[in-house]
Amino acid sequence: MTDAQHHLYIRRWIACVRANHWVMRKGRLVDNAVGEGASEWHALAWTAAQQLALQQHRGVTADDLRKGCHVVAFGSAKSSKDLTNHEFNRLLVLWGNDSFRSGTTAALAGLLIDPLDLASISAWRNPEITERNSFVAFLRRKAHEGVLIRIAENAFAEVRSQEKSWDELDLSKLRWMSKQLKDRRGPRVERCEREYVAGPF
Predict the structure, then answer these.
(1) For 80-135, how does the pLDDT look when each residue is reduced to its tens digit (9 = 90+)?
(2) Given its phi and psi angles, is residue 111 left (phi above 0), alpha (psi -120 to 50 degrees) or beta?
(3) What is the four-CA torsion angle of 81, 83, 84, 87, rounded to 10 degrees?
(4) What three-state secondary structure class fits 71?
(5) What is the DSSP code (8-state) at residue 56?
(6) Collapsing DSSP states into helix, strand and coil, what is residue 28?
(7) Cβ contact 61:53 at 8 Å
(8) Burial, 116: exposed, middle or buried (Cβ in 10 Å; 0-12, 13-18, 19+)?
């Protein structure tokens, strides 16, 4: 997990805590904490949290709920520092993201914040959409649009023939482009940048 992802993780967990009143007072959750009856996702998070608490022979804590969200999202209560991009994206479907600020990916309210949010429900049911959006957002942050077009045209026939734009490519091809751009000093990226800057004349 990168520093930026860690900051986003903290922001979104705080938003989830505030929305559900998952705060501790005098060693226990407050009385108005939103419980398992609020939605199917709340029920899943609470069930996972109760199982974690039961292993320690105590009541559910806010930290159990946080780790319970991990279990619901990707099946493990592992540390947030060890999350893969895919696991982190899945968790953000529960907690929401900050996309309304940046406008680079689809805004998700988060199923534990707004269980009726259609974008979050769709992302939960179709995780590949969330993963695609994540790769497109990464590529847009990493390089200028012209460079992305040039790389895609050089590598993929459907972009050369204008059947698809680069951001409509299959997930495997977006993954490939992301790999190329992770090392900006790669010869293919440098050549595309030179061609883009030089232009067609």
Answers:
(1) 999 998 899 999 999 998 765 544 457 899 999 999 999 999 999 998 887 888 88
(2) alpha
(3) -150
(4) helix
(5) T
(6) strand
(7) yes
(8) exposed
Burial 130-150 (b: 16+ CB within 10 A, else e): bbbbbbbbbbeebbeeebbbb
Token representation of residue 10 = 């903290």
Residue pointed to by tokens 């060693």 = 27
- Nearest CA to 61 out of 11, 10, 26, 9 is that of 26
Q: How far apart are CA 176 and CA 142, in angstroms?
A: 14
Residue whose structure tokens are 């751009």: 181
Spatial distance between the Cα atoms of 9 and 31, rounded to a whole number of angstroms: 26
HSE-CB of 201 using CA atoms within 13 angstroms: 0
One-letter amino acid for residue 90 of the chain: R
> Concatenated DSSP letters for 2-17?
-HHHHHHHHHHHHHHH
